[in-house]
Amino acid sequence: MPQRKICIVTGSRAEYGHLYWLLKAVKDDPGMALQVVVTGSHLSSAFGSTVDVIRQDGFVVSGKVDVLSPAGKEMPMTRAISRGIDGFSGVYKRLKPDVVVVLGDRYEIFAAAVAAYVARIPLAHIHGGEVTGGALDEAFRHAITKMAGIHFPATKLYAQRIIRMGESPERVFMYGAPGMDNMKHLKFLSKGELARVLGISGDRPLATVTYHPVTLEHNTAGKQMESVFLALDKFDGDIVFTMPNADTGHSVIVNKIKSYVKKNSGRARAFTSLGHIRYLSLLKRADIMIGNSSSGIVEAPSFKLPVVNIGDRQRGRVKARNVIDCGSAAADITKAIQRGLSGAFRKSLRGMKNPYGCGGASMKIKEKLKHIRIGADFLKKEFFDA
Questions:
Q1: CB 3.0 to 4.6 Å from 289: which of 35, 103, 168, 307, for a disulfide?
Q2: What's the whole-model pTM score?
Q3: Could you tell me which residue, 237 or 248, shows the higher pLDDT?
Q4: Domain boundaries, the chain
């Protein structure tokens, strides 16, 4: 029986962290042939050229689709999507995959999905059914769901949403978030080791900050970051920033973070890319997480880490009780940080479970991709009236 060719697309460091154990499982299965197609910020030196990390991890890059301007400069999203669709079309024509696998909701992933759909290649979608009310990703995600024929949502609620969108329950497989496999397989750095690699004291309270542009708002990134900085000025401890993804408006945030770190060099550090182990070790050892990153929603609950979730970017997502939602004003952020650092709040997180699972999803997804029947009529979906 010929190997089933599984083409997995990755466009960012964060998403690669979710896909790593699935990539490894497919690679190690003699009945499957892994194809890795790299796009987005992986190919930009401004975002750490993380395509090199993928190769260092032992994966062969089968194709590259560059959608960003040189040096990570801002590019209109419509042009990036257009470049992506054209580039993925050529890669798929060369690789001839049996299934294309995408995760999430970003614009470059939307381009990868459109190209697969038009080329009549079965599409599998991970992390569908979610809601992010403050981002363009909201519409991209649901559009990918309607193009996909295989669905791997992370929670029961997300699975129900996909079915309500007309997708057959027989094609919806709820195994949890594949990124949770990191919790089972990785050995995290100790507090001292982490302090050394990050260049921080290790003796003071530690905050990690990740703030992305809110893409359904216009020109708000700079003002919102100033509010974050005002709140951080009242935080008595070390601060580790991880830089934003390649959304429109990221350069404003990057420049402001660099300026803040320069002014606060005694206690603040900024990193373009930390990698799986260092980043998750940071979440495990930090006292609080601040920003609007999905990792505060998906991974942070596994560490019982208090999360100050600012603004609307993650509005609508399933959240554990470690997440404190707040507005983008400095006073709101300050109040939320104080609550998250309180002993009463931390005590309330004891026994909390992560709604996105505790690991094991990657192998289940791999097995489904290997064995699901893909016949001549697979792409001819019927609308399921729930």
A1: 307
A2: 0.89
A3: 237
A4: 4-175+360-371, 190-348
